[in-house]
Structure prediction request, 501 residues.
Amino acid sequence: MAVPLIFNSIEQTTLSTWLRESTSVFGFYFILLFHTIGMSLVVGASAVVDLRILGIASGLPLKPLKRLFTIMWVGLGINVTTGLFLLTAYPTKALTNPDFYIKLTFIALAVTLMRRLSLRVFSDASLDEVAMIAKGKTMAAWSLVCWIGAVSAGRLLSETSKYVLYGHLWGS
Amino acid sequence: MNYAHLHLLLNHFPIIGTIIGLGLFLVSFLGKNSDLRRGSYIVLAAIALISIPTFLSGFGAQLMIKGPGVSDALLQRHQGSALLSLWFMEATGALALIGLWQSQKTSHPARWNVSAVLVLSLLTAGLMARTGNTGGDIRHPEDRPGEAMVAKDGTVTEGTVGSIIRAFEPTPEKFSEAVTFSKWWWTFMMILHFLGLIMIVGTVGLLDLRIMGFLKQLPIAPVHRFLPWAMAGLGVNILTGLLAFIGLPENYIYSGVFWLKMFSLLLLGLNAAVFYLTDIFAGVENLGAGEDAPISAKLIAASSLFLWFAVITFGRYIQPLGDTLRPGN
Prediction:
């Protein structure tokens, strides 16, 4: 399958070139740093809520943890934004790599579960803690699985990509 | 200041510290003194932390002094010995932290934990002594036959005990190769390193935010029950981090931000010590929903949060800023 020409056009833009080639500490690695921080916020807060639902720290009241969803959405917002910048820097590298789509699928599933937990478990005032846990248990377990999958797929990106840039295979 | 200096500055702590920790631990058996036992555990955990930069600076020092006039066989021997004692030291430190966690609830560590710490700290003290001796052999030939210990074919003459321990010591180069043999294994370690980071930020971050006054509806004691997850994350990251360093030391020792990351981790250890060993922790431990923490606790929590994000920031920049300390740069 031919690599779409538009990836080349994106790589030629001033922004894309600057992100890749700038030696400033505010260049590529600055974006990557915030991608990592965003990850620690969204996955860290999700993991704590999931673990609590699954029985860890069972003395902790569940309802006030609703406020952690704000942290999750902020983290997700940071990562969508920084992710778009990273994609602008290396569109061919990411979009020709099947692992990139695996990562996005895991994230889509994890975010769907996060939204469901927020709406159906934490926003339903009629539920007491026992009912919240009964309703949220499966979602919490799958949420952990999907986040671990997303983080793993993310770290595997650099090892599985075929192209560095449009028309440039690794090592060529 | 260079790595050799840094290493000479740090290298007495693990040896003397382990002996002090072990000594206090043994004395605690005499009067069944539980405070003394806790004290010995704290010393062992602290020494496990300090052993990390000591080990890392040793790798740096080794690259610096390598060359004519220094026996490569003796360097390798010291490095292998340091590697072995480091793993025992870290295991002892981890068990000491588990014991401290247990003694928080029942006022004393579990019996299995006491036995395990006893065995491991005895072994660690012995291995540390050998690490000190093998290190001394590199630079203090006036105290011992030094160079005469190394035969022409590069083998080192050992005493009876030395040759037994030697059999268990890894060869540094082979160890490095084992860590870097496959990019998939390397990636797996990095995945674990990220998952560890997430566990730490999620659980410690929640505790810090609560103490700082956000999420005040949460009582503190149950938030603190997440701490073993943070410690597990830290354990995974110390393990994967050390393995990565041993695998590709040149990627790290010339990087200024790597040392800043290590320094931040030491500050985090100090921060945790101030939190738990003064009455600050006792003052917040039982705060219920809606209750405000004292300003001293808030400052500790804010420093913790700040330092963890500093660790992430410095860690992320190791790759692009990996050469800032390379001689001639």
Summary: The interface with chain A takes residues 183-184, 187, 190-191, 194-195, 197-199, 201-203, 205-206, 214-215, 217-219, 221-223, 225-226, 229, 289, 309, 312-313, 316-317, 319-321 of chain B (CB under 8 Å). The radius of gyration of chain B is 21 Å.
